[in-house]
Amino acid sequence: MTRFAPALFGLLTLLAWQGAVWLLHVPPYLLPGPLGIARALLANAGSLSHALLATMLVTVTALAVACVLGIAMALAVAASRLARAAIEPWAVALQVTPIVAIAPLIIVWVGNPFMALVVCAAIVAFFPVFSNTVAGLAAVPPELLDLFRLYGAGRLTVLLRLRLPHALPLMLAGIRISGGLALVGAVVAEFVAGSGGFASGLAYRILEAGYRLEIPKMFAALVLLALAGIAINAALGWLARRLVRE
Amino acid sequence: MLRIEQVSRAYPGGTLALRDVSFSLARGSFTALLGPSGCGKSTLLRLIAGLDQPSAGRLVWQAGAPPAPGRIGMVFQDPVLLPWADARANAALPLRLLGEPAAAADARAEAALRRLGLGDFLAARPRALSGGMRMRVALARALATGPDLLLLDEPFAALDEPTRHRLQDDLKRLQAESRTTVVLVTHSMYEAAFCAETVVLLAPRPGRVVASLTMAPHGSRLDDAFQHDVAAIVHAFPDAA
User: Which residue among A42, A59, A151, A211 has its CA within the 20 to 30 Å range from the CA of B33?
Assistant: First the structure.
């Protein structure tokens, strides 16, 4: 029963939503029903699927960039106190900076629209993978470090055979959070870029549908965004289960 | 095998963990370091393992130099196994760190695990093992290299009484078979009296040697000789009672 609970709850919600729209005669430009949204999804399948692909490409590239930078900087922080003192305050500053405030600047500075979107999304996705990897690398029991020292293991061996495998579960949890944030970052950046006239991704389609009062299409794009988020989360969860074998 | 001469260890901030500690470890002997919390037992063990350096005094090895990596095995109060590796890979870890090929390391690890009664659990991950079994894997890991010196830091403290007794029996048997030099840190005078040939009593703050007692060989915890040795510890060191 628990297994089917999410689908059952979703179905009941959709039925209640559609019923309320019918009974209260809510016009579709205010709130379309699920059937209207499904029709809009089918009618605009071509443009929306292209937009979904564009958003996913930005998201996946940004997540990859955030992982490479986050893990590399976490390794530097774990290896050196100087690096920790130098990097950590900037990482926190990056985390608390609202991307929507700096996205226009990044778009102007970077020039290439795709790269600009990737930079914005990667900034949003960076912190969880970085902070979780730092925490995982630091959480090795001191007795295990003693054991490795007792058998003459060098720093590289300790890193590769102890610290990294030990950090893996926390690192993967961070990557899973970053996956969702990369999507959010991509959408925010697309909104900003879309406002400036650069047509790309689902956020631009949402913006465009809003301007044209095509509210069912707007909701259809939102549905695709939600499904993309669920898919990213599920894929990263599956990867974590495959890699962490405890 | 090792003479510890007037060893002291002070930590930054001025805390003195050990003061003028002296005693000897004969090759093939079984020594227990007994004392309450804070008497520097674990600090002493880390000094012997080469994981820490004394602030004063010295450790004189009969061989002229500290043992090479792999010649000292160590077991901690927590088994600290690698959670992602099975029992075989955990026991083989020291050998792999010393550069032994995987197949040979696995074979020696398997032999050590079988000697400790874990032949049916070679592929089990730590999560699937009981506390006693995890400690056996940690013992097998320390013994897999065939060390000359085995250092045990309160390895049975967190185990229930029957499991502790079984592991003490196994430890005594393995030590008698291999004649490995063993140093057991414990705060249990029963454990010290039952397992060791020599019990070094330490007093706390700062840690210092109060007495060194020779125990009689005991086959059982019901022996009169065992009860006599426990009484001797209590007389020599009432704080341990």
Answer: A151
Mean predicted confidence (pLDDT) in B122-148 = 93
CATH number of residue A95's parent domain: 1.10.3720.10
User: CB–CB of B215/B193 below 8 Å?
Assistant: yes
Query: Strand, coil or helix: what is A240?
Result: helix
Q: Say if B123 is an interface residue toward chain A (CB within 8 Å).
A: no
Q: For tokens 């590769």, what's the residue?
A: A160
Record: contact B82-A144, CB cut-off 8 A = yes
The CA radius of gyration of chain B, in Å to the nearest whole number, is 18
Q: Does B69 touch chain A (CB under 8 A)?
A: yes
A102-154 per-position pLDDT tens digit: 888 998 899 888 999 999 999 999 999 999 999 999 999 999 999 999 999 99
Average pLDDT over residues B206-231: 84
* Cβ pair B125:A150 closer than 8 A: no
Report the residue from A144, A168, A246 with minimal CB separation from B127: A246
Assess if residue A196 is contained within a domain.
yes
Distance between B90 CA and the closest CA of chain A, angstroms: 12
Q: What is the pLDDT of residue A64?
A: 97
> For B74-131, what is each residue's pLDDT tens digit?
999 899 999 999 999 999 999 999 999 999 999 999 999 998 889 999 999 999 999 9
A227 domain-assigned? yes
- Interface A-B, measured as beta-carbon pairs within 8 A, has a size of 50
Residue A166 inside a domain? The answer is yes
Query: Poorest-confidence range of A69-73, A79-83, B195-199?
Result: A79-83
Max avg pLDDT among A62-66, A106-110, B43-47, B129-133: A62-66
Residue of B nearest to A151 (CA): B69
Nearest to A151 among B46, B70, B80 (CB): B70
Domain that holds residue A125: 35-243
Chain A residue with the nearest C-alpha to that of B69: A151
Per DSSP, the residues of chain B read: -EEEEEEEEE-TTS-EEEEEEEEEE-TT-EEEEE--TTSSHHHHHHHHHTSS--SEEEEEETTSSPPPTTSEEEE-SS----TTS-HHHHHHHHHHHTT--HHHHHHHHHHHHHHTT-GGGTT--GGGS-HHHHHHHHHHHHHTT--SEEEEESTTTTS-HHHHHHHHHHHHHHHHHH--EEEEEES-HHHHHHH-SEEEEEETTTBEEEEEEEPPP-S-TT-HHHHHHHHHHHHH-GGG-
Tell me which residue in B80, B84, B98 faces A144 most closely, judged by beta carbons: B80
